[in-house]
Amino acid sequence: MRGRIAHFLTLVLLFAVGCDEQSMSEQERELQLYQNWELQPGDVVAGYPVASGLGDISIALNGNAVYAPFNGRVQPNKTGCAIFSSEEVPSYLFRLCGLKSYRFGVRRAGEVIGKGNELHFAVLNQQADGQWAMVEPSKKILEQILQPQ
Questions:
Q1: How many domains does the chain have?
Q2: Can you give the pTM of this predicted structure?
Q3: Nearest-CA neighbor of 127 among 30, 27, 31, 8?
């Protein structure tokens, strides 16, 4: 009986927070960014969370989904965002912030990464020293993320 109750409570919790069981198994991914601006996503100023900083592109999604631009992996990021990585573009990472729900784990090109009212999107390029620097995203990559392929 206890096992059934525990299973039921787990399902209720997963439904309530918008995650699936695959989401629970993803490890948080930390990044060392090359830029060191004063305000970072996740910081709190006057009680309000910073959703994006210099280098992010903000898009009004109006509750719509964003999609994996390549076959890859979605991982939570310490800032409350998600990081998308792909072997197809190994020197780049895509940081997605502002979504209400994320689907963590392995995603095929065109599969939903998450949904929300707005997206704060950044492209990170790995530098020779192993740190990550924000670079300007290409319009084509942004289109792939906003439209299913």
A1: 1
A2: 0.68
A3: 31
Phi/psi zone of residue 55: left (φ > 0), alpha (ψ -120 to 50 degrees), beta? left
Mean per-residue pLDDT for 118-122?
A: 89
Q: What is the pLDDT of residue 19?
A: 43
Q: Using an 8 Å Cβ cutoff, are 134 and 120 in contact?
A: no
pLDDT for the residue 39: 60
**Angstrom distance (rounded) from CA 5 to CA 63:** 33
Task: Quickly tell me which residue has 């998600």 as its tokens.
Answer: 82
- The domain that holds 95 is classified in CATH as 2.70.70
- Residue 24 belongs to what H/E stretch? helix 21-24
The range of the structural domain enclosing residue 14 comes to 2-146
Assess contact for 60 and 120: CB atoms under 8 A.
no
